[in-house]
Amino acid sequence: MGAAVLAQAHTLEPLPAGVSAGQVLVPQGVYAHIDTRQTQEMLQTLTQGSAEQQQAALERVRAAPERFQPPVLYAMSQVLFKAKLYHEAAFWFYAGQLRARFDVNRSTDPTTRQAVDALNQVYGAPINRYLFQDLDRALDLIANVVAWDRKTPYDYDPHWINLHGMQAVQAARDPQSAGARTAASLSQPPSEWAAIAERTRAKYFKSFQDAITGMQDKLPPSPPAQPSR
Q1: In a domain, 221, yes or no
Q2: What sign does the CA torsion over 114, 106, 123, 170 have?
């Protein structure tokens, strides 16, 4: 059920903290049961598949985005951007980013945050450049992402994020210690998830709002309107 390896040289997801490229760590204990097979298959298709295979993968995600772990949404954004579907690419990039942040926030391992940073580095630069060419459009898109996230279920295993934290690395290096962890110990209590999700959305939107306001304040004033003759 679990990923074949925690990290390997050709991994398509970000490496866990403290793991170098080429290093192989086998998930132990509860981590061995975290199912990322669909994510790995989709990442393989979206990054290396034929045009027809990529299009089929895009349609799968569009039809049921709630079923896919955030790295798939990130990879989807890259395919769409290369196809010059810039606005849709930006939507899925930020949707993946928001959901990944929620998964970090409901995890009990704070070191998983580096996975979001790594995904942003891999996929974010061209999309950020595109979006912030129009600050009003940027804020509207983020508002739409937040609204979509609020109404769209999370029908995927959120523990994918735990494979990218130091607790998983330590368990892989010391299999005896892995037995101390249970599936329930990997996340905050499910009864708290709705509140965590709402706090994550609020903080996410405000961070963009503040950034965009700062950018707007630095823009040169518009020239005064010329009187009509």
Answers
A1: no
A2: positive
Query: Could you say which DSSP state residue 187 is in?
Result: B
In the chain, alpha helices (H)? 37-48, 51-63, 70-82, 86-106, 113-131, 135-151, 166-173, 175-178, 193-218
Mean pLDDT in order along the chain per 10 residues (229 residues):
36 51 75 93 96 98 98 98 97 98 97 94 94 91 98 97 92 82 93 98 96 78 57
225 within domain boundaries? no
- Give me the phi and psi of 49, to 5 degrees please: -75, 170
Range of the domain at 93: 29-215
User: Which among 216, 30, 207 has a CA at the least distance from the CA of 120?
Assistant: 207
Domain for residue 3, yes or no? no
Is residue 6 in some structural domain? no
What is the total count of domains within the chain? Answer: 1
